[in-house]
Amino acid sequence: MNDHTPLARLETAGFALDALNDEQRGVLSALTPQELTVLIDLKGQLDRVGPEVQAHSDIAGGALF
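Above: the chain's sequence. Below: its structure in token form.
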């Protein structure tokens, strides 16, 4: 996979792409550079508050990727 493709950038950012189906991967591979930046930034913010978000998820049964 080319290191500059959206999927490669998402994988480098820590997204678990193996859990996605082909259609989901297709959507992510078609992201614009701006959309990709926003998604990676959001994941970074969620990761920084990981324990807090995880606690809410465990209690409420929510799911975040």
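The CA atoms of residues 6 and 29 lie 5 Å apart.
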